[in-house]
Design brief:
alpha/beta, Nucleotidyltransferase, domain 5, Hypothetical protein af1432, 3 domains, five-stranded mixed sheet
């Protein structure tokens, strides 16, 4: 039986709703697409607030969207706000007003959450996505307030970074300095170049980028609509090369850019069939794409013409098992954590051992903690990043590790989940205190605090079992003795584990406090 789902993107420059039909037989099929242009980003980036007239307009648009969903019989929806709401000083007040009057709840996405959904929207393209990221590929996700650049090698995410180069933000900067259209290309390239040079020096030294995937709201639709010709530089032989929607060589894109310069604003809007107000933003986006492509030396550009709504429905369809993705997104999240660990010279040999032990404990205590796959992922991230703070301070490891985790983007997890990971690592090095946790993290609820306690307890035992950092055993057996309220951890090793046993008590005490069962180490001579 088909299910109708509504995906709503309240963006910086437009509000979009797509209606989708979902079924296990046919997967995802788009039924309708509604777009309303509204410049929320300029308000936020200038004043930190959305003006009352714009708030009223948002309410009216969302009421219309709600009526459309009712007409289609949509029972489930997800509405997401992006950078315009993230940067708003009075977001809570505005969102509450909107929900009270429209009945639509808007979820504010973190930057990493938004980019991860955009990333999934590309994955909804299936075969093309999997083939492109098999080689050196960059995803350049251009938003109103910033851009996200994610690098792939051999189908694996190796780096992702955010740069404050969004099209609306750049437009405001150019407006303040009084830049005319004739100066636009040089000034945009100068601004982009100054930030991109740092990114290039830090992250592109040992990576060869052949393909760039562009996600934006302006140039992608034009490229798709006009089907720019190209000769593909992918795996096809020349005789099999074919024209594909959204693919274009960098050389052809440069020619397209030259053609854009021949038209004034009004003529270009008519020529391309777009709104007149979108022309300046299209020009900025196109210049950014050309500049980044030239600096990366990429041969092929792909404009899949997807929106956040496509990512929203793709994630929903995954969760409800309407489709199964060929790409492992959790591995991308873990790869992102691993890159942060490497950047701060984390102990690469130790983390996999700690992670493996922690997962064994997690699995053996499922009946006690009741946590699921998502919490298991957070435990893995915490294990990978558990010693990153040594890069800053060996003596203030708790605070340093917490600061690093909270300051770096881990794509694919929410801000709350990132706080959970940071706090779990923090309390690995200092005594756990509910009172201190609630005082420092007022936005965390009781459930989140309990998750931190459970992850900290598991991670602490795993860490204690490799206290010497000499990896004295690579396997262990865990047996829960419910009658004795003990969790017996049997390790097979011929080495001396006096250190591990001697320093195990504090970790065991907290584990018993959290789970009501005491871990005990037993040695089996190997």
């Amino acid at each position: 039986m088909a299910n109708l789902f509504g995906a709503i993107d309240v963006g910086s420059h437009e509000i979009e709703m797509k209606i989708f039909e979902l079924s296990k037989k046919n997967g995802i099929r788009q039924v309708d697409d509604l777009i309303h242009l509204i410049d929320l980003g300029t308000d936020t980036y200038n004043d930190g607030r959305i003006s009352p007239p714009h708030v009223a307009e948002v309410k009216r648009i969302l009421l219309d969207f709600r009526h459309v969903m009712e007409m289609y019989g949509v029972r489930e929806y997800r509405a997401c706000g992006t950078s315009a709401f993230r940067d708003m000083d009075n977001a809570t007040i505005v969102l509450r007003q909107i929900e009270q009057e429209t009945g639509i709840h808007i979820e504010i996405l973190s930057n990493s959450g938004q980019r991860f959904l955009d990333y999934k929207s590309i994955a909804s393209k299936g075969e093309d996505f999997n083939r492109v990221i098999g080689r050196g590929t960059a995803i350049v996700d251009i938003g109103g307030g910033s851009i996200q650049i994610s690098l792939f090698e051999k189908d694996r995410l190796v780096q992702t970074q955010n740069l404050q180069l969004g099209v609306l933000r750049l437009q405001e900067q150019l407006h303040r300095i009084g830049a005319g259209s004739h100066r636009l290309p040089a000034l945009v390239e100068e601004i982009v170049g100054s930030q991109f040079e740092v990114f290039e020096n830090l992250y592109l030294e040992n990576i060869s980028i052949r393909n760039i995937i562009i996600v934006d709201d302006y140039i992608s639709e034009v490229v798709q609509k006009h089907k720019i010709d190209f000769q593909t530089h992918m795996t096809e032989t020349p005789e099999k090369a074919r024209r594909k929607e959204g693919f274009v060589s960098t050389a052809d894109f440069r020619q397209f850019m030259s053609a854009l310069q021949q038209y004034d604003r009004t003529d270009l809007a008519l020529q391309l069939g777009i709104e007149d107000d979108n022309v300046p933003l299209l020009r900025i986006s196109a210049i950014m794409v050309r500049c980044i492509a030239d600096r990366m030396g990429a041969a092929l550009l792909w404009f899949p013409c997807v929106t956040l709504c496509d990512g929203i429905v793709y994630e929903f369809a995954q969760e409800r098992r309407y489709l199964k993705s060929a790409h492992d997104f959790e591995q991308d999240i873990l790869a992102c954590a691993d890159q942060i660990s490497r950047r701060y010279l984390g102990n690469g040999d130790q983390s996999p051992v700690i992670e493996r032990i922690a997962l064994r404990i997690f699995d053996s205590t499922r009946k006690l903690h009741g946590m699921g796959r998502r919490e298991q992922l957070l435990l893995q991230i915490a294990a990978i990043l558990q010693d990153c703070g040594k890069y800053i301070s060996m003596t203030n490891l708790a605070e340093s590790s917490c600061s690093i985790i909270r300051s770096n983007e881990i794509i694919g997890i929410s801000q709350t989940e990132q706080k959970i990971v940071a706090c779990a690592v923090r309390f690995l090095y200092e005594p756990f205190s509910y009172r201190k946790l609630l005082a420092q993290e007022s936005t965390l609820d009781e459930a989140a605090c309990m998750t931190i306690a459970r992850l900290t307890a598991i991670l602490g035992v795993a860490n204690a079992l490799d206290r010497s950092r000499r990896h004295k055993f690579r396997d262990l057996q865990i047996r829960n003795l419910e009658r004795d309220r003990k969790m017996v951890i049997t390790v097979e090793t011929g080495e001396d584990i006096s250190l591990e046993k001697g320093l195990f008590g504090r970790r065991a005490d907290f584990f018993e406090e959290v789970f009501g069962i005491r871990p005990v180490i037993r040695q089996k001579k190997g």
